[in-house]
Write a structure and sequence with these properties.
alpha/beta; 22 strands; disordered C terminus; hydrolase; six-stranded parallel sheet; 4 domains; Rossmann fold; Arc Repressor Mutant, subunit A
C-alpha cells in the first residue's frame, strides 16, 4: 500500500510540473503569435507604403506649394530648415492624404500641421486631449501672429459666438481651431457647425494630436477618442493627420481601424533623442530624504536651470512643491484639481522663467513648447515605458544636453499598480517600466528602442545613459533560487494562517521582522541589502513567480502579494532563477559622477572618478555566500568605497566631527571631493574594513540609520546584535565608530568613520 502512495505522490508531483511547463509553453506560444502578427503588420505597412510612394516622393521639393511653404517657414516661423519627416508629412497632408506621424516628443510634430494651415485656405481643426497643451500652442501662435482659437467649456459666450460664426464663412480669419474630443462627443451644436463649415469647403483638414489615445491597447486610452471614428464618414474629403510620440505597431493598426483610415500613410521618425541622458536612481525610503535628494539635484546639478518634476498624485505634487518653496526653490504646482486660471498662471510663469520648476501630475506637459528644459525628474515611477518616454521627452527640445531621472522604489510600484490594474494593459505596461528600472547593465536607450520595435546598438547611446556612462563593469549572473523559494514559502505560510501580505510586510518577514504569524523561523534573513531584496521581489513579479492581488476598501485599493502562476516551479524545484549583478569594474575605465547622482544598486557598484579627477581605490568587503552545502561562507567582493556612501544611503546626511568629537571649525572643512580611505582589520578574521570619508559642513550625511557621535575609544551600541533602529531599519547595516588615537591629528579632523557588517552588502 505504501508503494502505491509513494507512486501516487510522484505522479501528482510530475503532473504539477507538467501543468506549469504547459503554462509556460502556452505563454511562449502566445508571445510568438503576437510577435508574428506584429511582423506581418510591419511588412504589410511597408508594402503599402512602397505602393503608395511608388509614384510620389513625399520628401520632394517640386510640389506646387513648396515655394510658399519654404517662404513661410522662414518669414513666419523663423526657421531655416525642416527636420526629419516634417516635409514628407506636410506634403502628404497638403495633397489631402490621410496620414499618421510618429515622431519623438520635441521632434516638431506641431509644425507639421501649423505650417500647412498657414499656407492653406480654410480652417484646420485640431483635436487635443489637454487644455494645457492647447493653451501652450496658442500662446506660441499668438507670438507668431497666426490667428487661432480654443473652444472649450471655459470659453465665454461672446467668444464662442465669434468662433462659430468664423467656422461657417469662407471669409473667416481663423487658421487653427483647438478643441477637445469631449467637445466633439458631447456638443451636437458644435458638430452641426462643423458640418456647415465642411459644406462650404472651409474645413481644410482634421488633426488628431496624441492619436494613440484612440486605442485601448495604447498607454493612455480615452473613451471620447472613440467618437472620432465618425469624422471620416461625416467629412470624407477632409484629410486626417494623426500625431503621436508613442505608439507600437499594434496600436497604429488599431488607430487606423477606429478612425476609418485603413490606407493612411505612415511617417515614422526614429525614437532616439540623442541629447537626453537617461538615468535611474534609488529613491530614499522617507519623504524627507527624498526631498533632500531632489533639492540637492536642483540646487547643485541643475542650479538655475528649468525643469519638471512629475509626481504620482495631486497630493504628492503639492507636498513636493511646498517643500521646494520652503528651501528657496521657485517651484509651481500643477494638477487637474486646480482652476484653469491657476494652471495657466503657473504655466506662463514657468515659460517666462519666473518659476524654475513645475511640480506636476501627468496633466501637465503634452505639447509644451519650452526649448530649454534641462531636467525631468520622476518623483515616482511612470505607469509605462510610453509615459516615461513622452514625459521625459519634454526636456531638451533645443537639442542641448538634458537629464531624465527616475527615482525608483518598490513601494511606488504597488501604488501605481493599484491605479492601473483595471486597465486592459495596465499591469503589463507597468511591469515593462519596472524592468527598465531594475536592470543593472543594459543600455537604457536600447531598452526603450526595443519596446518601440526599433533596434539601437549601445554604441549609438554615446554614453548618454547611466549604464553606458559609467565604467565598463562585469555583469555576473547569480542564482537566487533559494531566495525566491524563501519568499514563496513565507507567502504559503501566511496563506495557511489566512493572512494577507503586502510587499512591505513580505520583506519584513523575510528579514525576520513583523508579525509572528507571517515570519517563518526556518528561513534565515537574507545577506542582502534591502534594495537588492526589493529587486529580487520585483523581478519575481515581472516574471510571474509572484502576483499582485487587489482588494477594495471603502477609501482605497490595497495591493497584496500572493504566489503567481509560476510559483509551483519554485516549490517543486523545477526552475532556477538567476539575476544579473554587477561584479567588478574595469580599472582602466573612467567616469564622472555628477552632483546628486547615485551609484547603481548592484553587487558591486561601478568605479567612479570624482570632480578632482582622482580615482578612488577599491575596498574589499565581506559578503556571506551559500556554499554547496547550504551553509554560509565569507568571500571578499571588490567594492568601490564611495558606493558604501551612496548605495547605503549614507551620502546624504553629514556629520562634522573633530578628533575630540566636537564640531569642526569652518577653516578645517574639506570639499565633497576630498575623499580618503582607511583600511583596518579590526576583528580576528580581518573581516571588517573601514571607510573614512572627509566631508564638509554643507555636505551632511543623510541616513535611514542611527548614527551616534562617540567619545574616542567607546564601543558603538549600534553594533550590538538586536539593537533596534529608530526608523525600523536593521541596525546591523552600519555603525559609526571612532578612530584610534594612532591616527594623526590632521587625518581625524572633520571626519567620520563608517564600517559595514559582514552580512550587509550595500
Amino acid at each position: 500500500m505504501s508503494d502505491y502512495k509513494n507512486e501516487l505522490c510522484k505522479v501528482e508531483s510530475e503532473l504539477s510540473l507538467l501543468e506549469v511547463e504547459l503554462q509556460e509553453l502556452l505563454e511562449r506560444q502566445s508571445s510568438l503569435v503576437n510577435r508574428r502578427a506584429e511582423l506581418k503588420l510591419i511588412l504589410e505597412q511597408s508594402e503599402l507604403d512602397n505602393q503608395q510612394n511608388q509614384h510620389i516622393k513625399w520628401e520632394g521639393t517640386d510640389f506646387p506649394w513648396t515655394a510658399e511653404l519654404d517662404n513661410k517657414l522662414k518669414s513666419v516661423f523663423k526657421l531655416n530648415e525642416l527636420r526629419s519627416m516634417q516635409r514628407q508629412t506636410m506634403n502628404a497632408t497638403l495633397a489631402k492624404e490621410d496620414c499618421l506621424l510618429i515622431m519623438p516628443t520635441g521632434g516638431g510634430k506641431s509644425l507639421c500641421f501649423q505650417l500647412p494651415a498657414v499656407i492653406s485656405k480654410g480652417l484646420t481643426l485640431v483635436i487635443s486631449p489637454l487644455v494645457s497643451l492647447m493653451e501652450d500652442q496658442q500662446m506660441a501662435l499668438e507670438l507668431l501672429k497666426i490667428p487661432s482659437a480654443i473652444f472649450t467649456s471655459a470659453t465665454s459666450k461672446e467668444e464662442a459666438k465669434h468662433i462659430q460664426e468664423d467656422m461657417v464663412t469662407t471669409k473667416g480669419h481663423l487658421k487653427l481651431l483647438y478643441v477637445t474630443p469631449e467637445k466633439l462627443a458631447k456638443s451636437k451644436r458644435f458638430m452641426n457647425r462643423l458640418e456647415k463649415s465642411y459644406a462650404v469647403n472651409h474645413l481644410t483638414r482634421i488633426v488628431i494630436d496624441e492619436v494613440h489615445c484612440c486605442s485601448q491597447w495604447g498607454h493612455d486610452f480615452r473613451p471620447d477618442y472613440k467618437f472620432l471614428g465618425i469624422l471620416k464618414r461625416q467629412f470624407p474629403n477632409a484629410p486626417i493627420l494623426g500625431l503621436t510620440a508613442t505608439a507600437t505597431i499594434n496600436v497604429l493598426e488599431d488607430v487606423k481601424k477606429i478612425l476609418n483610415i485603413p490606407r493612411a500613410l505612415l511617417f515614422r521618425a526614429s525614437f532616439n533623442r540623442p541629447n537626453l541622458f537617461y538615468e535611474v536612481q534609488e529613491k530614499p525610503a522617507t519623504q524627507k530624504d527624498t526631498m533632500d535628494k531632489i533639492f540637492h539635484l536642483i540646487n547643485k546639478r541643475f542650479r538655475g536651470q528649468s525643469g519638471i518634476i512629475y509626481c504620482f498624485s495631486r497630493k504628492d505634487s503639492e507636498e513636493v512643491a511646498t517643500d521646494l518653496k520652503s528651501r528657496g526653490i521657485k517651484a509651481g504646482c500643477y494638477h487637474a484639481d486646480m482652476t484653469a486660471q491657476s494652471r495657466s498662471a503657473v504655466h506662463r510663469k514657468w515659460l517666462s522663467g519666473d518659476v524654475q520648476v513645475v511640480v506636476a501630475t501627468v496633466a501637465f506637459g503634452m505639447g509644451i513648447d519650452k526649448p530649454d528644459v534641462r531636467f525631468v525628474i520622476h518623483h515616482s515611477i511612470s505607469k509605462s515605458i510610453e509615459n516615461l518616454y513622452q514625459e521625459s521627452g519634454r526636456a531638451g527640445r533645443d537639442g542641448q544636453r538634458s537629464d531624465c531621472i527616475v527615482l525608483y522604489r518598490l513601494a511606488d510600484v504597488t501604488r501605481q499598480s493599484s491605479m492601473v490594474f483595471t486597465e486592459q494593459t495596465g499591469l503589463p505596461n507597468l511591469y515593462g517600466i519596472v524592468q527598465y528600472c531594475i536592470d543593472v547593465a543594459k543600455c537604457r536607450r536600447s531598452l526603450i528602442a526595443r519596446h518601440f520595435g526599433e533596434v539601437w546598438e549601445s554604441a549609438q547611446c554615446d554614453k548618454m545613459c547611466d549604464h553606458c556612462d559609467r565604467a565598463q563593469c562585469q555583469v555576473k549572473v547569480k542564482d537566487v533560487t533559494h531566495y525566491c523559494k524563501d519568499l514563496v514559502s513565507i507567502l504559503d505560510a501566511a496563506a495557511a494562517t489566512q493572512q494577507r501580505v503586502t510587499s512591505a510586510k513580505l520583506l519584513d518577514a523575510w528579514y525576520g521582522r513583523g508579525p509572528a504569524g507571517v515570519k517563518v523561523k526556518s528561513i534565515a534573513a537574507p545577506s542582502l541589502a534591502k534594495d537588492q531584496a526589493e529587486r529580487i521581489l520585483a523581478q519575481l513579479l515581472v516574471e510571474g513567480y509572484l502576483r499582485e492581488d487587489f482588494h477594495f476598501t471603502a477609501y482605497s485599493t490595497i495591493c497584496y502579494i500572493i504566489p503567481g502562476p509560476k510559483a509551483k516551479l519554485l516549490r517543486n524545484g523545477g526552475v532556477k532563477v538567476a539575476i544579473d549583478f554587477v561584479q567588478a569594474c574595469d580599472q582602466s575605465s573612467k567616469n564622472t559622477v555628477k552632483d546628486g547622482s547615485a551609484a547603481p544598486s548592484s553587487d558591486t557598484p561601478h568605479r567612479v572618478k570624482h570632480k578632482n579627477n582622482s580615482e578612488t581605490s577599491n575596498v574589499k568587503v565581506q559578503k556571506n555566500k551559500l556554499n554547496s552545502k547550504g551553509t554560509t561562507s565569507k568571500s571578499p567582493v571588490t567594492r568601490d568605497p564611495s558606493s558604501l556612501l551612496t548605495n547605503s544611503k549614507l551620502a546624504t546626511k553629514k556629520l562634522m566631527l573633530d578628533h575630540h568629537g566636537g564640531p569642526a571649525k569652518p577653516s578645517e572643512t574639506h570639499s565633497m571631493t576630498d575623499i580618503e580611505f582607511n583600511f583596518d582589520d579590526e576583528d580576528e578574521g580581518g573581516s571588517k574594513e573601514r571607510v573614512r570619508k572627509v566631508t564638509s559642513q554643507s555636505d551632511i550625511l543623510n541616513s535611514d540609520h542611527i548614527i551616534k557621535t562617540l567619545p574616542k575609544g567607546e564601543a558603538n551600541p549600534a553594533s550590538k546584535r538586536g539593537h533596534n533602529d529608530e526608523d525600523g531599519v536593521a541596525s546591523k547595516k552600519l555603525k559609526l565608530i571612532s578612530k584610534s588615537s594612532s591616527d594623526s591629528e590632521d587625518d581625524l579632523k572633520d571626519s567620520i568613520v563608517i564600517s559595514e557588517d559582514d552580512d550587509f552588502v550595500p
